[in-house]
Amino acid sequence: MLLEGRRALVTGASSGIGKATALRLGAEGARVAVNYYSDKERPDAEAVAAQIDPGGANAFAIKADVGSEPDVVGMVGECQKRLGGLDILVNNAGIEKEVPTLEMPLDLWEAVLRTNLTGAFLCLREAGRLMAAQKGGVIVNMSSVHEFIPWPGFAHYCASKGGMKLLTQTVAREWAPLGIRVLAIAPGAIATPINDFVLDDAEARHRVEAEIPLGRFGRPEEIAAAVAWAASDQAGYVTGTTLVVDGGMSTYPKFT
Ligand code: NAI
Ligand code: BGC
């Protein structure tokens, strides 16, 4: 097992990539705090924790809005209490909603930046304080190919992931002397609830698949595998960079 005894927190872990990641970290021997957003997601998060450890000693669900400073401070404090510290943070929580920029209301712009970027910052800062005291840890930020591929209709989302890229690189430099690695993973199109608006529309799905050399959406487990590796000692020399896991989408297959 890659992560025997490591203590991990995965945000937005009641569904999609976060769920697959929590399960994979658990299967690799980690003890896992399974973050969820609201009471609506609670049963799913509890089911993830129960799947990792039915006894509950090595996995538990924990509610927090990553965009709320008091929530995040409370969540990381709870991890310290229940796990004795944190070795791995996966900043996975994220949202998106298509809106042309000319019509984008400020509150939607702010909501996306708050969850995707400020949320990642708050969790990273709080977990980083524990990791600095412990003299070690790994932070994996769930970015996107849209940290470098522009995406019309998603300016807020692209800005959040572009911001995440330089947050990752900058903090990796600051914290390397503390023994903390900080890196990002950039998935392409993965079959999760965030993509239901495409997956439920055969034509739209086909259009996206045509953008992917491997010809299919990725599976959440394929991203989780990359996270498990990135968080493990096998990736001990990897920091300040983004690992792209996208079926070749970023080779721009439609460019002739
Ligand atoms: P998802 O919608 O299943 O997962 C997002 C999770 O974030 C949900 O569990 C949701 O409850 C949680 N969340 C939302 N707001 C939150 C908040 N304020 N506090 C705590 N949790 C909150 O979708 P998916 O695909 O699993 O997304 C996970 C991450 O992967 C996101 O950051 C997304 O941007 C990123 N990603 C997804 C790709 C895809 O094609 N599915 C591709 C590239 C990146
Ligand atoms: C988005 C998905 C999209 C993928 C590829 C991700 O960041 O969350 O909705 O399918 O990028 O465009």
What does this structure look like?
The protein has 256 residues and is an alpha/beta fold. The chain has one domain (7-255): Rossmann fold. The chain has eight helices and seven strands. Strands 3-2-1-4-5-6-7 form a seven-stranded parallel beta sheet, with helices on both faces. Helix 1 (16-27) runs parallel beside helix 2, helix 1 crosses helix 8 and helix 3 runs parallel beside helix 4. It is globular, with a radius of gyration of 17 Å. The mean pLDDT is 98.
Question: Which tags fit this structure?
Answer:
binds 1,4-dihydronicotinamide adenine dinucleotide, binds beta-D-glucopyranose, alpha/beta, globular, single chain, 7 strands, Rossmann fold, 256 residues
Q: Please, how many helices?
A: 8
CATH topology: Rossmann fold
The domain tally reads 1
**pLDDT below 50 for ≥5 consecutive residues: which ranges?**
none
Class of secondary structure makeup: alpha/beta
CATH superfamily: NAD(P)-binding Rossmann-like Domain
Helical coverage, percent range: 40-55%
Which ions and ligands are bound to the chains? 1,4-dihydronicotinamide adenine dinucleotide, beta-D-glucopyranose
Strand line-up in the sheet with most strands: 3-2-1-4-5-6-7
Shape: globular
Run of helices and strands: EHEHEHEHEHEHHHE
Which percent range describes the beta-strand content? 5-15%
